[in-house]
Structure formats: structure tokens, C-alpha cells
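User: We ran a pulldown and think these components assemble together. Before we commit to crystallization trials, I'd like a predicted model of the whole complex to look at. Sequences follow.
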Amino acid sequence: MNGWRNWLDARTSYRELCTRLLYEPLPGGQRWKYVWGSTLVFTFLIQVITGFFLWTAYSPSTQTAWESVYFIQHHMQMGWFVRGLHHYTAQIMIILLACHLIQVVIAGAYRTPRELNWWFGLILMKLTLGLSLTGYLLPWDEKGYWATQTSTKIIGITPIIGPFLQTLLVGGVSYGHQTLTRFFALHAGLLPALFILTLVVHVALFRKQGVTHPKNTQRKAYFWPSQALLDLGASLAVLSIIVFLVIWGGFEQGIVLGVESGANLQAPAAPDEPYSAARPEWYFLFLFQFLKYFPGSLEVVGAIIIPSLVVGLLFLFPLIARLPKGHAFCRWTTLVLMGSIVLLTGLSMWSDSIDPAYQKAVADAEIKAKRSIELANHKGIPKEGAIALLRSDPLSRGPYLFQTHCSVCHRWNGHDGTDSQIVDPSETALRDPKHLSTKLVSANLKASDLGGFGTQRWISEFLKDPSNNKFFGHTKLHNSDMANWSKQNIPLMSEEEINDVSWFLSSQAQLPNKTPISSEVVERGAEIFSFGSWDGAQPCSDCHRLDYPNIPATKNMVSAPDLTRYASEEWLLGMILDPTQTKYYGPTKNEMPKFLERLTSKEAHLIAKWLRRDWVSAHQKNLSDTSLQ
Amino acid sequence: MGTGDEDSLNKNLSHKMINEIKRRGFLKGSISIVLGAVLLLAPLITGLLFFLDPLRRKTQTQGFLKVGSLDSLPLRIPRITKVRGNKINAWNKHANEPIGAIYLVRYEEKVRAFQAICPHAGCFVDYSHTQKGFLCPCHKSSFDLDGSRTSLSSPSPRGMDSLEVRVEGNDILVRYEEFQQGNSEKILIS
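Assistant: Here's a predicted model for the assembly, 819 residues in total across the polymer chains.
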């Protein structure tokens, strides 16, 4: 047993090395307050280990960064856990760093002869923040993309060298593949290497100088095993907190137990899409808040000059401490600094918490994130990247296309289409007053509200009161033949008859989320459409054409829309592209512009599909079911 | 407090003292070692499980894929042919993507298909018109038109891997599969 140990010791003197490492003198004995440095080393080790494994699966380019992180998070074995460890450890490190710094200042451990150690510690702090900043961009999701835009812009306003530095860091004038490759090289290469070198010097200097122990202590003690046990105990507590956060995060994303509520990975970044939820990570919020007080050209003062002065002041601490009352000054400065950071962070969080626009932006981002993952799970990701999935998704694009092209005249359940309630697919929820939107638009209403268009409910409400502001009220059709028909004939129809005929019309739409309805009802509706109601209401077929068995040709020569496949994708597409066709409102009754030249064919399809709520839903089969056998 | 004291303390650390400390700290030391191991194993083991992810992924068998038509195939002259199929590349999912290459050889109404990958070390096998046979450019394994080794001294441990072929009318369908290299048996990679 001892043979090989002796053999090894004769060649390496490892026993002496272990003795020197473990039996570090610790006058006064073990203390909990000495644990901060060790917990930081431990968290850094976690980052190195998890970082290496993530490296084996991450792919830095604008078409693969989000996609590979998505794959890690949602498809690879323990991927969510390893990424979660890396993600939350980074945040815990910042907290431990602050504790370590405060402890060092309070104990006066930055003073002579430990100046160098203090300075190396400050360099480690800057490297940690650099690692956080570069790591935040790597998933290439909306959150990281927009937050990092701000950071690199701030680097750009540095006097003289700023613009060069920014271009070098970004790898060009705008974000792209090279931004990711550069950030990744910094995050996984240069910064960790510098971190390890600095850490070695920092720890070596610490061992040379020893702990800053209580004065006049007589008790002789050593690092091993008492202090080691405390350090490891503290590390275990840190790990427990991190693992708790990871599991909680996994629980929120539905990875654990399958109940979804949050997303650790947001939607893929798109420079052309609005993102109003942009905030830096919480530990940079104080700077974000601070910048609010430096408008316009003063920004450089708040973003560069003051932070540089503060860091400069920290570097001068060991020298200041030599002055009379210098140590007290340093303690107070640290206290004020930490207090200001906490205060600014709190202010920032508070102002966001009372800002409904920000809250909505966060909720929207969350919905978009889930949708991205849902689409990727369902369809797999095309070569162009996940962003192509969102761009061809009616649920994601429809609201914005509607807002841009349609909401000038139309409404969608009372708003411009972009309210978050659009994701609720149930018809009842849409008409419930408490779901009514606050997101009204200021433009003049000129046309109908298209929320629920083609549903039985929409049609029956329309039949009962076409002149209502929700329908023809704002158009020249408000006293049209249709409005007159309704006034004269609706009183002659029973509620059931109105329902039947609207079910019949709705069945023409073949909506994907339609309520199952018996063919009997549809046939009754078709009969009323063709021949009128029991009490002699005028049949629809007098004015409207509809290609259906036994429906007679129109009698009147008025131009009313052809209701064959009414509200189907094809019908809507024709209506959107050219409503002046006689099949629709014809040249005289129509007020709607032709969109033939204003929309691409893809956009028109997306709007038509979105109006019909025709999109891939979460309940369909997942990629994960087919990619694994 | 003086660092001088600590230095001398360090130097004068006698074995007796260390042994004393060791005895007192045996329990603490043991707990520390176990704790330290647990702390490092947590990220290491989960990381390893993550790294082992590819082991639980199987290749997809796609049944018979159409690779060409009978009338465009010359008699007894191997034709290199691309095989297209569904391809899952981690997060990417493509339909109708090239997934590999095969040689098709027609003998009157019968067609044989060979995997173009050499069973020896995985190089892409050439067809030599002058030698009327297959020749691997890497280690000079050579195969006859029927895929068998030309001599037993050929580096390849087995003949070229034949694939299942079905002719439906004019269409040639092949069950595309890949096999382990370096083995005298044909073992499917799945």
C-alpha cells in the first residue's frame, strides 16, 4: 500500500506539497467569515465543468446558436440541468463576489501588505463581469441580443477608442455570425484563461500573506480539516441553492413534471422585430437605472466616466487606507457603494413593476418564447434557423401584419391585433368583457371587428344587427340592403333559426377550431338560407350566391357577396387581395383598398390564416417523439 | 500579528504536531473528503450524462427509398447514385436530403446495390473502369463487380456491403443502411 506512495513521493514530494497546501496556519482558528473565497473557487469550478460540457453541444452562428441551445435545453439528456447549473451559478457568483469584497474591506484585508492581492481580486471581479456579459449573448435569444446591443453601444461611446473597440468586439458594424464567434472565443477561451491565471496569483498571494486574523490570538490552528469543512459546508449550501433554482426553473419550463409556465430560453433574436422587454441581467440593473439620470450627450458620464472613477477609487483603497482615517473612509465608501447599487437595482425593479407596458412586453416575450419552442418541437428547425419558423407562423406574424395593414380600419376584438389575449383560442373567452383589451388604437374605425370572423357567434351577431359599429356601422353599408333585411326579417325568425343559418354559414368556413356541429343543424340552416324561415323571412339566397346542393340561383340583381366557402382561407385571400371583385362587394359597395400590390402572397396567406385561427397547436405531435426511437 | 511568526510556525510544523492534528481531525477530514467529492461529482456526473446523450439516439430506418430508374442504368457497369431521405441533424430536420451514396449494378432485370463506404476503414470506394472492379483509394482494398474481395490478402475484412433492392416497374428502391467497419461480419449501425 505504501510502496507506490513512497515511489511517487520520491519523485514528486507530493506529501510535502499536500502538507503545505492543507496545513496552512490559521491563527485564531476556523471561521465562517473566511468561506467566501473558497465558495467562489467552487462556483468557478462548476462553471469550468459545465461550461466544457455545454461547449460540446453549442454552435456559435446566427442560424445555429439559438437552435443548439434549444436542443441542449429541450432534447439532450440532462441538458436543462447542466445549462441550468451554468446559468444560475453565474448569478450566484456575483452575489458571492459582493460578499467576498465586503468581507475583505471590513476586515481590512486589502491593506498593506495585501495591496497586490486586492488588485488581483478586482481584476477577477472585472473578468467575472466580462464572462457574464459575453455569456449572456451566446443563446442568441431576444433577451440576450437586445441587452448586449446596449452593452456594446456603451462601449462604443467610450471617448476616442470606443468605436474601434465596438467594431472589433462585434466583429463588424452590426451583429452577425462574427459577433457570436468572437463572444464565444472570449467567453470560453480568453476570459477563463485570464481568470485562471489571475486566480492562481490571487490564491498564491493569499497563501503568502495568510488570513487577516484577529489580533493577539494565541490559538494555533490550521486550514485542514476544520476550515476546510466549513468551506465545503458553505459550498454545499451554495450548490443546494443553485440546484434548487435549476429544478425550480426546470419545473417552470415544464421539463420537470411537465407543467409549463416560464422559459429560460426566449424567442430567437430578430433585429426587425420590436422587443420592449429589453433589460440587462439583474446584477447590471443598477447601471441601467443609473444611466436614466444621464440623458443625451451626458450618457458617457454615467456609462463610462463615473463607473471608471468608482473602479479607480476601489483600486486606490490600499493607498487611501494609509492615510489617517483612510480605512474608515474605505469602509464607508464600500457601504455607500453597495447601498447605492441595492437602491438603484430596487428602483429599477420597482419602476418596472408598476409599468404596465413593460409587464405586457415581458408577458408577450414569454408567449413568443413558448411559441418558438412549440414550433421547433412540432416541425423541427429548417436550415434557415428557428426564426424562419416564427416568420411563417400565422399566430406569431398575424397580429403584427394585422396591426400594420388592417388595424387602420378594422379591429380585432376591440384592439389592433397585438394584444396578448390573441393566444386564447376559445371563442367564449374572446367575447368575455374581462378579456377586452386596453390596447385600443387611436385611428378612426372604418370597418368591422374581425375577431372571431367566420364563427357561428360572429355571424349570428352580424345577422341580428349588421349596422352595429362592430360590423357595418362605420361603412357605407350601414343602411344597405343587408341592414334593411335584418330590420325586417330578424323579428320573423326564432333564435334557433338564426343559430341554424349561422351554423350553416360558419360551416362553409371549415375553421380549424370549429365547434363540432351536427349535419342536421347545417342542413336546417341551408334550408333557411335557401327558402327563408318558418314565419316567412326572406331567404338569403335571394341576394347571395352559394354553391351548395339545392340552393337556388339568386333572384335579385343586387351585388351581394358570394358566400360559397365564406370565410375559408381561399375566400378571405380573394377578399384581402381584391375586394372590388363582383364575387365580393363589387366596385360600387366596396370601400376597402386592394391589397394585391401591398402584401406579398406569403403575408396575405398569414393574415388569412391568422383571422381563421389556423395554426399549428401545441397539442400536436412533438419532434421529440419522432427523433428518438 | 506578524507574518514572521507564521513562517516559523510553518517551518517548525513537526510530524508529532501534524499527527496530533490528524487524529483530532480524522472525522472532520473524512467528512470533508466525502463532501468535496460530492460537490465536484454533481456537475461532473450530470455533465457526463449530458455528454453521453448521443448513445440514446438511434439512426432512423426509413424503409425503401427510391434511388433511380431501371432504364437509365447501364448493364454491368456500376453507377454511383445519391440516396435522398429524411435527415435529422440534431435540431435540424430536413426532408429529401442526400444521406449517402451507393453503387447500383444492373444484371439484366436484376439490380444489386452496394454501400459506397469501404468496409475496411470507411473511405469512399472508387470504381475503376480499366480494372472492371471497385478499388478503395485509401488502403487499396479491391472488390469484384459482385462486391466480393478480389483476393484474401485485400485489407478489407469483408466484401462490399450489399443493400436490399426492390424493383417496382421502372423504379429502383433501396433500403439504405450503414454497417460497422473493420469487422468480418456485416453489423448494422443503429
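Residues 65 and 173 of chain B are 5 Å apart (CA to CA). That may be worth checking against your pulldown data before setting up trials.

User: Thanks, that helps.
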